[in-house]
Amino acid sequence: MNRIIDLRSDTVTMPTDEMLKAITSAKLGDDVFCEDPTVNKLEEKAANIMGKEAGLLVPSGTMGNLVSILTHCDRGTEILLGNKSHTFYYEAGGISAFGGIHSRQLVNQSDGTIKIEDIKSAIRMDNIHFPKTSAISLENTHNLCNGSPLLPEYVQDVAHITHDNSMKLHIDGARIFNAAVALNVDVKDLVVDADSVTFCLSKGLSSPVGSIICGNEEFIYYARRNRKALGGGMRQAGIIAAAGIVSLDKMINQIREDHNNAQLLSEGIANIEGLSIDREHIKSNILYFDIKKEKTRSPKLAKQTPDNNLYPFDIILDNVYFLETSPSRFRLVTHYGINGQDVEKTLGILKQMVK
Ligand SMILES: Cc1ncc(COP(=O)(O)O)c(C=O)c1O
Ligand 1, atom 16: nearest CA belongs to which residue? Predict the structure, then answer.
């Protein structure tokens, strides 16, 4: 049987053999009592890598963003975030549902930035009619904006405005290591001016579960309390942390290969008649492409066209899985487990998308 080539997301990655071994031999304790040595080791390692004082393991990127934003923002205050940000789009409205935090969406440019002028003009003056603007959240790399990495200079500019206005800067760095690799910078340079960052172990870094929040000691102290309130205090969580340590020690190099594979895919797609791709913006492991307006879907693809507006939608062509994210726009994500042969096979199959 043909192997499945699953390019829907880097969240489908399976743990490596080394992770499985580390999980079975991990030293464990009760992490709600801060007594799990493996969790403590991972949190300390992550904080060192990010150049922050402390770290906190959470079950998911969604909880990492929620805990961070709950910790920065009081109820009834406002957070600025991109209109294509994951927190706005895909986190079930958690910040308003559980935090009473008002979100204000600013336009994301195709490179994932928000214009500096837009940020400046969105910060509210002190007036009883307005919610206080308490924080801004940036996403790096930006999932819906071509997986674009945000430059350190841009993050620094946003941080200056944020801090000049007594606000906090959070970074949803679910794929911050992809950004660091794409820009060839130390990951610390991308978060040095931020008050908090969340990154995921369970995407390009291949762990089965887990994300980490990093920030200063005081922030992490309150974040830990919010994690508990949300039910994210896990007991012998060292079984998760053990894989996370392998992610940080061994899997960052894999990201370079994932980016190379994304480049090979984008080059191949650019040469397929009937498909179009904006190659300029592809710098990490996420790529989007479109069926040209004048083209018709092949019968095999047409059979899978959603009959409702429930995007994203799984597309399965032979053994290749990917997503249709909006009508005639598709997403591929490269990751551990996808090799050069898979890229070639995928390109062969994508040729059959249009008549
Ligand atoms: C940019 C971004 N932030 C946050 C998340 C949420 O991560 P999780 O699926 O672990 O909740 C994702 C998930 O894909 C993401 O792409």
Answer: 143
